[in-house]
């Protein structure tokens, strides 16, 4: 492998370049690695966010990692050809099928495999348990995700490292009242309106349809109420039908999957109704821009939300989420104070530079341990 002082060579295996937290995680880590001289490559299928990766200064390798056994065999052949010309020190996987592929390659090329659990609650019974490979080491972004992993798999605690996600305050600067008014003007929303935002994939376990319930419940209770729903996914058509059926098209607005910063800026608060999360990177982004968060008690919530100071936590319950959201949104001055505290909390405890340093340290530690085992 050579000296530890030389640049690292990391290959990421993911499902696809779809919109969502995994793609943002991959892009942010890869960009930071590339910026300081390490070599990075990403392999997976092309998804809805692929134009971002196409413009990146590191290679993308097209392989069918979402396919069945025959497709995964093609993945192995394609990646084997890549590795013969481009050796790597470590494969970092972000998907269970990807870890199966990585394990086969690791036996031939002799490198460790790191698996990141991005979503606890994945199926673990029957055939899924037999086909689950957690790599040589696991990374999780929250204590809640670690606890789920240890309780529901054969993974021992010493093989799990918690590294919370972080955001770069320069990319997500505080949006003051003037910037909020400007963002709202661009969306045709008045400065006195109450605005909630949702950012995420339209699929299980995000519970995006709860935002429609909120639109119904908030009508007439919150002045000029608007619910901005930013994202896309397999349940988009169902979401549109639900909005039409409940007659809340004037409140619940599907705004696509563009840069979420304009929606963070425009809103009074971000709402995260997920049934399961490993962390919720969008919560961190909104907080960094000065917006409080109301979210379900899922992975990462205890790191992000200081109750009543940076936001509010609710149980994973549709009725509780809707009623608490209406109450939470009813005091815009309190929301602004919590948003200021949220922005400071992120800068002090959850900045991206901490995440990046911890990730680099983990890569080096895994390589040292792997080389030590092979030398003994």
Structure, described:
With 376 residues, the chain is an alpha/beta fold. Helices cover 45% and strands 15% of the residues. The longest helix has 24 residues. It contains 15 helices and 13 strands. The model has no long low-confidence stretch (mean pLDDT 94). Strand 9, helix 9 and strand 10 form a beta-alpha-beta unit. It has a 7-stranded parallel β-sheet with strand order 3-2-1-4-5-6-7, with helices on both faces. It folds into 2 domains: 182 residues, Glycogen Phosphorylase B (Rossmann fold, 3-Layer(aba) Sandwich); 172 residues, Rossmann fold (3-Layer(aba) Sandwich). It starts with 8 loop residues before the first strand and ends with a helix.
Give a nutshell description of this structure.
Helices cover 45% and strands 15% of the residues.
Named CATH topology of the largest domain: Rossmann fold
Broad CATH class of the largest domain: Alpha Beta
Q: Strand arrangement, largest sheet?
A: 3-2-1-4-5-6-7
By CATH, the architecture of the largest domain is named: 3-Layer(aba) Sandwich
Largest sheet: 7 strands, parallel
Q: What global shape is seen?
A: elongated
Instruction: Provide the domain count.
Output: 2
Helix content estimate: 40-55%
- Provide the low-confidence segments as ranges: none
Spatial separation of the terminal alpha carbons: 16 Å
Order of helices and strands: EHEHEHEHEHEHEHEHEHEHEHEHEHHH
Mean pLDDT across the residues is 94
